[in-house]
Amino acid sequence: MAEVEEEKGVQYFSRDFEWERLRDEVERDPLSSYHLSPFTTAPFSPSPGVADADAWRSFHRCHSTGKFFKERRYILKEFPELIVCDASISVLEVGCGNGSTVLPILRSKQDIIIYACDCSQKALDKAGEMVTTADLTFRDRFYPFLHDFSIDKFPDWLLCTVCQRSSPRKNFIFTQDANGQCLIGSNKPACLEAECCSGGLDFVTLIFTLSAIPFQRMSFVVAECMTVLKPGGLLLFRDYGLFDMTMLRFPSEQRVGFREYIRLDGTLSYFFSLDIVRNLFLGAGFIELELEYCCVISVNQRSGKKMQRVWVHGKFQRPILSTTSLSS
Asked: With 0-12 CB in 10 A as exposed, 13-18 as middle and 19+ as buried, what is 134?
């Protein structure tokens, strides 16, 4: 599951225009009104682990050459925390696709270990091929595994030790009504109340991944990401933002939920507001460090047409544990 990097040399963290101005333009445009109206029919809900995952598996089979994706070299500029640390670090890339995020991270330091999961074996095979082709030594620091993170819990060997003991992990509930208002109920993982915690990862990356799954499952994924992080560990987030050019291009018949659309190939795309992202992560117990829209004007090299792109950039931290003892 991944985003397409369309334009060479684009700056991915900037403000070429004000998001509020774009919002006002869309709200005044009668042709865009269907994007803003409440979604009153039943929301799209494919059979868990079947329809949406199969669509992405088919997508990766069709694009198995890997040319569809470009390496995300901007990732280290947007998230310098990955390389400023002197110590050895571990990273989980959720929804790694063909490895376009993995490669620049592996190149950045010799003491970074990356675990990477995806629901598509074809994507994992291509990621492994790209990593090996780039540098044979990368294989020793790259551990891909097949995993549908939208419905399955992360394997115990990724978890902090407290989360391993507190089985089964509690589920999180996060929904929205027809107008996109958040309806939240959550149970913090046991590890947030623990006196000590060992194991877990330094970073989790969700790069154009969360938008690719049904909205109803997003809170489950975010909660699972919490369980695999060390206290103080960071979750690095980037995804499609509300009123991005891609959203405004979807016709009304491809709208399957509030701010949720389905492509002709069956893959999903959700467009996030800052409030939705904030409620998802804070509801799971994360601390917000950074959260804002990235508004970029990119130019199609062939047509010369300017496009207004909107992404959401976020950094969230798992709380550093207090001296509160784990209740029996």
From this structure: middle
